[in-house]
Amino acid sequence: MIRILCADISSADERVYRRLYEKASPERKRRADRYLRREDKLRCVAADALLKTALGTEDYHVGKTDRGKPYIKERDGFHFNLSHSGCYVV
């Protein structure tokens, strides 16, 4: 089964960003903190929220294959890709 989740972040304000940031995984927070532009920070934490929605849990750990492809340690066979363009996170 293929499931596609998309978020339009064009109307997200600072309050929305803070709420997503607070719920983001430590790895995502570190990544968001490295970005300089607010839009990039927002895309980063919104991607985390979409992944949590797809998984149905907030408790997950990302590993990386020897080729650098991320995977969910607790979900064998769960494949995902996160992407963004402009005001959309998919």
Mean pLDDT: 91
| Global outline | globular
Strand order of the largest sheet: 1-5-4
Order of helix and strand elements from N to C terminus: EHHHEEEE
The helix count comes to: 3
Give a structural overview.
This protein has about 90 residues and is α+β, with helices and mostly antiparallel strands. The longest helix has 18 residues, at about 40-55. It has helices at about 15-25, 25-35, 40-55, and strands spanning about 5-10, 60-65, 70, 85, 90. The protein is globular and about 35 Å long.
Please provide a brief summary of the model.
The chain has 90 residues and is α+β, with helices and mostly antiparallel strands. It is built from 3 helices and 5 strands; from the N terminus they run E-H-H-H-E-E-E-E.
Features:
3 helices; alpha+beta; single chain; 13% strand; two-stranded antiparallel ribbon
How do the helices and strands line up, and which of them pair or pack?
Elements: E1 7-8, H1 14-23, H2 26-34, H3 38-55, E2 62-64, E3 70-72, E4 84-85, E5 88-89
Antiparallel strand pairs: 1-5, 2-3, 4-5
Helix pairs in contact: 1-3, 2-3
